[in-house]
Amino acid sequence: xxxxxxxxxxxxxxxxxxxxxxxxxxxxxxxxxxxxxxxxxxxxxxxxxxxxxxxxxxxxxxxxxxxxxxxxxxxxxxxxxxxxxxxxxxxxxxxxxxxxxxxxxxxxxxxxxxxxxxxx
Amino acid sequence: xxxxxxxxxxxxxxxxxxxxxxxxxxxxxxxxxxxxxxxxxxxxxxxxxxxxxxxxxxxxxxxxxxxxxxxxxxxxxxxxxxxxxxxxxxxxxxxxxxxxxxxxxxxxxxxxxxxxxxxx
DNA sequence: CCACTATTCAACCAATCGGTTGACAATGCC
DNA sequence: GGCATTGTCAACCGATTGGTTGAATAGTGG
Lengths: 120, 120
Hints:
The structure is a homodimer. By secondary structure, the first copy, chain A, is mainly alpha-helical.
């Protein structure tokens, strides 16, 4: 119960290399060696990155002889989108309401004191 | 040029406490002390969390006497949603195409060998 | 001016992270 | 069987992280 799923997903995607790996997996499955090729880090480092993505549920692995092909699990991305969208919408609604209040207040002031400015 | 915006946003939200702070700010601005109250960590720790969120562009701060009220900047959330949705859609499309191919292949096999099952 | 409140800065600490090297397991091919 | 290929495990290292305590800054209100 150490850390929830959402935390693992967010922190998995906090690393640019891992985001890049996800981007590449979106256009097709790939083996660890294929994924490691473009970077100038060891294949072990990439293996670790993939493990992080796997623990977050973002990729699953198959078995093809001694190869362990990686596949993107897009479902988990919904989890993040849902979290994000919820608060974005909430904040936007709040701003909308605030704007409405301000507008009404402005109208009121105009009505109450049609020609008077606030004293300095 | 150390780290890009997206990395900062993702890693800011990788922490449960920070996600919680964002959630609370979505329903209204708050000061550091108010935000710190529910947690059993020092106010300094929360101040650091807010700084992380601020550096990621997720919150902005105002000035009201000696208070520095925090406000959620929801725009940045769009950045993440866009990144996520792009690859989710890409992966989904790929699966859809793959399904279509498999279906066509299945039809073909059925036509080629109407009554024959594959040998054990 | 003084005291109080709100917030941050600085130094420190343990844990985690991204990377390395080196050894090891598993599988296919000759 | 022997060997090359693919991938992981283990131990280590320096940097970063999330937390602490203690001191400093800044603005309010008597």
